[in-house]
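Notebook, p. 212. Picked up where the previous page left off. The plan for this session was modest: take the two constructs that came back from the sequencing core last week, fold each one, and keep the raw output in the notebook itself so nobody has to go hunting through shared drives later. Recording the first one now, exactly as returned: residue sequence, then the structure token string.
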Amino acid sequence: MSRIRRTGHGRPVLAAAALAATLALTATACGSGDDDSGKKTDAKPAASDTAQDPGGSGGGKEKIGIPDKLPKDLPTSLKDLDSWRDGAWKNWDKDQWVRDAKDFINPYLKGHWDLGRMKKAEDNEKKVPENIESTSGAANTAEPRPVKAEAVKTPYTRNAAPAGKVFMDTPEGPMVCSGTVVKDPRHPGKSNLVATAGHCVHSGRSGGWLRNITFIPAFNDRGRDMPSVNNAPPQEVAPYGEWWVKWAQTTNYWIQKGAKSGGGGSQQDFAVLSVQPVNKSGKSLEETVGNAVKANFDAPSSSRIRGVSNYGYPAAPPFDGAKMYSCTDKPGALTIDPSQPALYRIGCTMTGGSSGGAWLIEGAGGKPELISVNSIGPHPATWLAGPRLGKTAKAVFDAASQKG
């Protein structure tokens, strides 16, 4: 199986975020303690260790949040940071792409994600082998029939869940995923947390932390076609502004097992971002967008779910990343690693770029609850699968919340 990513560089992908009323996309969760199978997982969640201040004046390593144990090519002064912002980071040895960094770092780069760069971002997908059913090593429910992705009603600020686009720089260039604003019990009504996929923040066993990660809620609020987005007013492209990621948390399982193809690590392909506004409005993300969904870390098995809806911004053909789409289906189960909880799987034609988008079910009081995020799917796109959130995912969430 593979993470949701379609091959081919240079495909235009609109960067941004949109609100989705019922959102279903797969993600990996990482944590400490026991996983859902009753087996011990690899201790504490892997995390980013430094919070940066958007627009801060800086003043050395401490001010820009650079730990001691980083590759020597990292900036060590504001002068170096200027060079880094202008593209010097692209000269790094890709085999050492923040691989030596134990923790995530993401110093704010003003104006880095302009519309032109967002459109260059590719879908951050992962490939799934065609014979996934026979290679998974476990009995799975039948492969679902394709469900055609439907465009979400606009404006997203009124008709969709609190979803958006997550942009990141990778060794292969700028890429894009999807994400969803989730409630933070430690900060009621004032959450700054975003759920997405682990492969949207870390390369897994083949690499390290990604960089320059940012979140744009309700991107392209009016659902314009890609060519029209170029001339759309800023309040439509990014109605809630830009939210820079100051902290990222994912699972040790994803970091150790995550693979670009074959589905490795997908059963814990979950991450949580702690964000802050670049405009220093003083308001939280939840206050700004006016909504957040509850994350359910005691998610039911697929057999107990009547229906789930997932949302995202698919960017690989035939989509271009400009609009938000959704699929609704009854989930089945898919197992790649028998030691981990089975993935949820539904029929869906969304492609790469939808990675990290939310899977939502109806919870208490009829309110949507997040039970997964988009992680992997085949090519051509006929289905999507995402991790079942449990104790490992909750450990990731709690660690990010404490830093939020």
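Okay, moving on. Second construct, recorded in the same format:
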Amino acid sequence: MSDLPASGPDWTHIIGELRSSVTITDAADPEQPLVFVNDYFLQLTGYSREEVIGRNCRFLQGDGTRSETVREIRERLLQCMPVRTEILNYRSDGSPFWNELNIDPIFDTEGRCVLFVGLQYEVTDRKLLEEEAAHAARSAHRQSRALMEFIGKLNHEMRNNMNGVLGLLDIVLMDESLPDDVREYLELAKGSGDTLLNIANDALDLAGAANGRMKLERIEFNLRQVLESILKTHSARAAEKGLELKLAIGGDLSQRTYGDPHRLRQVLDNLIGNAMKFTEQGSITLSAESLPQRTESGEQQIRFTVRDTGIGIPEEHMDKLFKAFSQTDVSHARLYGGSGLGLKICEELVGLMGGRIFAESREGEGTAFHADIPFSTEG
């Protein structure tokens, strides 16, 4: 211990009384042997001072110790660099414990690394909790995937049968001699069937996204034409409700875009359909603008916004927007209908395309959904 201060407080005694494990190793020796350990280190490891002084700390390692962690520690010490890591060690009785290592080099007046001072903390309880949480997360993920597989198969069967029922209803409704009351009942049945078919399609999309089966295309398309086509699809419904549909495209956006126009259409169709459902008067605006930042691969970030003048969303319900089978208010579900799957599917699709989706809303003043999606302007 000649490298510790020779005068002043009794540092050895003070360090020895710390309720943290303290070690000092000789950096000048290639073996980096221990030259000092405090009492808490001995309590933690179960070894005696005579058993550890003069030995390299690797005697604490065992079969479960990650070789990558050991290599990282060794490389940093060889470069006289600090070490911050966690490692699985073993006590003298063979019992394992997780050790949080904090090692710092000490240099003499000539800049030579002469000592390594280490502080160690047992973090076994924390690591066990982390492992339990990770196991629970993996288990939940497996269960979720299994549930989505089941939902996908169930809705596939339902969709096939609903297509058959709806086809037969279409044939019957072609009969011009049907009494008015019978035609009304059949049209109500067809409307209910269309709703069930939409739910089945939504559930199939959600199951496909959750299980990684949904793939992206990369083709060239004209952005303005796609957006105009999307609005045209909703124009009849908007006219029926007396709503104005607007399109605003930033002048700096490239019209030649590479990506998946089908998935983009699916997202925007969902958002506009949702806006149409909750807007009784006013307008719905679809806009696209270029964001200043680009992705690491140089892709252009485009913000697509669907803004309506509808009923808005209470602040306390904003966190429910992108949860499957969830609507902001039970009364909304009764009044406006819907499965609560559309926004979840949008989130999955936008995430698949490498973007993010979020919303802004004030109750009674309308809602704006923003989808920031990267697209390439080069083939």
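Notes on construct two before I forget. The radius of gyration is 33 Å.
Flagging for discussion at group meeting.
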